[in-house]
Design brief:
This protein is of the alpha+beta class. The protein has 8 helices and 16 strands. The longest helix has 26 residues. It is elongated, with a radius of gyration of 27 Å. The C terminus is likely disordered.
Length: 358
C-alpha cells in the first residue's frame, strides 16, 4: 500500500514538474513559407483577400469535408472582416486587420486555444507572383506541452502552410488560365434607365471600387424601393492603359425613370439604343484585354467607325457575387459604333434625368 502511495506521489510530482516546465517554455514559434503562382499579382491578391475563397484553398477546410464556416462582420475583402469555423480538427476564427492593395494581407487567427498573427506578402517575379506567408504562433497550454517534447503542433502548422499554398497554386492556375473569348459581332444595345456614380479611378483599383459602388447603389435602391432590372455594368469614358488613371461610371440598370437631386453622388441617367460590337469573356477579368483586342480587330477589319463618346462598357452577367470561381465569370463587353457608312456622330447617347427622389 505504501508503495502505491509513493508511486502516486511520484506521478503527481512528475505532473507538477511537467506543468512547471511547460509553463516556463516560450510557447511561441515562427513559420515562413513561399510559393510562386503563375498568375498576375492583382489577381492572386484579389482571390486571397476575398475570405469567401478561404475554404477553396486553406488545407484546414479543403481536407475536412464536414467543416462548417460562418462569415460575419464587414465585406470579405475589407479590414475587420471575420469568419469562424468548426471542423474535425477543431475550431477557430480569423479577422482581417490590415489589407494593403496588391501588397499584403495581415490576419489575426485563433484556433484550438492558440493564437497567431499571419501576414501574406505578394511580389512580382519573372515567373509569376511570389507569396510569402509568415506567422508567429502563440501556443495554448496543452499544445505547449505537446510541442515541448515532439514539436507535433509546429509540424502540423508547417504542413498546413505548405499544402495550402500548393492548393492555391493549383486553384488559381486553373481558375485564371481557363477562359474563352467569343466575338458576338454587331448588335443593337437596347435603351435603359440606370443609376450611376462617375469618378476617376486608378486602373488597379477599378474592380475594388466597382464592388464598393455596386453595393452602395444596391443599398440606395432598397432604401428607396427602386426596382433593379438588369446586370451591373461599368462605362469606361476613356481607356488608355499607358495612363494609371481612367474615368469610369459604375452603373446598375433600373426598371423605370426616377428623379434625383442634382449634385448627388448617385445620378439617374438613360442610355439610348445604338449599335455596338459585342464580345463575351468567360473567365477572369485579366483577359479583358484579349476580348477588347478581338473586338477592335473586328471593327478595323469591317471598317466600322467608333462612337468616341466613351471607350466601351462591361456588363457583369456572372461575377464574384454569384461564384468564387473566376473561370465561370461571364462579362459582356460592348464598344459603341456608328451605323456602317455614316461618319457623323450619333445623337446623344446618354441623357441626364434630374430633380429628386422623395
Amino acid at each position: 500500500m505504501r508503495i502505491i502511495k509513493y508511486l502516486f506521489l511520484l506521478l503527481l510530482l512528475s505532473l507538477v514538474a511537467l506543468t512547471i516546465f511547460a509553463a516556463t517554455q516560450k510557447g511561441e514559434f515562427t513559420i515562413e513559407r513561399s510559393c510562386i503562382i503563375n498568375s498576375p499579382r492583382a489577381t492572386v491578391f484579389s482571390y486571397v483577400s476575398d475570405s469567401k475563397n478561404w475554404k477553396s484553398w486553406n488545407s484546414w477546410a479543403v481536407d475536412d469535408s464536414l467543416i462548417s464556416i460562418t462569415q460575419y462582420k464587414n465585406a470579405p475583402t475589407e479590414k475587420g472582416f471575420q469568419l469562424s469555423w468548426d471542423g474535425n480538427k477543431g475550431n477557430g476564427d480569423l479577422e482581417n486587420i490590415i489589407n494593403k492593395l496588391n501588397e499584403s494581407i495581415t490576419q489575426k487567427i485563433n484556433f484550438n486555444g492558440n493564437s497567431s498573427e499571419a501576414t501574406m506578402h505578394f511580389k512580382d517575379t519573372l515567373k509569376g507572383t511570389k507569396i510569402t506567408w509568415k506567422a508567429t504562433v502563440k501556443l495554448g497550454f496543452v499544445n505547449k506541452i505537446i510541442t515541448t517534447f515532439n514539436g507535433a503542433f509546429e509540424n502540423e502548422i508547417t504542413s498546413m502552410f505548405e499544402k495550402s499554398l500548393a492548393n492555391l497554386d493549383r486553384k488559381l492556375d486553373f481558375e485564371v488560365n481557363h477562359y474563352s473569348v467569343k466575338l458576338d459581332g454587331v448588335t443593337i444595345k437596347p435603351a435603359c434607365f440606370y443609376l450611376e456614380q462617375t469618378f476617376t479611378s486608378e486602373f488597379t483599383k477599378v474592380r475594388k471600387n466597382a464592388e464598393i459602388v455596386f453595393n452602395k447603389i444596391t443599398k440606395f435602391c432598397k432604401q428607396n424601393k427602386i426596382i433593379i432590372s438588369g446586370k451591373p455594368f461599368i462605362i469606361y469614358h476613356n481607356y488608355d492603359t499607358e495612363s494609371p488613371y481612367t474615368k469610369i461610371s459604375i452603373c446598375i440598370p433600373i426598371k423605370q425613370e426616377i428623379f434625383i437631386t442634382e449634385g448627388s453622388e448617385i445620378m439617374s441617367r438613360k442610355i439610348i439604343s445604338y449599335p455596338v460590337v459585342k464580345t463575351t469573356l468567360t473567365g477572369d477579368y485579366t483577359h479583358t484585354e484579349k476580348a477588347l483586342e478581338k473586338a477592335n480587330n473586328f471593327i478595323k477589319e469591317k471598317r466600322y467607325i467608333k462612337n468616341t463618346l466613351y471607350s466601351h462598357f462591361e456588363v457583369f452577367v456572372i461575377d464574384k457575387s454569384k461564384t468564387n470561381s473566376p473561370s465561370k465569370w461571364i462579362t459582356e463587353i460592348y464598344i459603341p459604333i456608328h451605323p456602317k457608312g455614316i461618319s457623323k456622330s450619333l445623337t446623344t447617347v446618354t441623357e441626364t434625368v434630374q430633380d429628386s427622389v422623395q
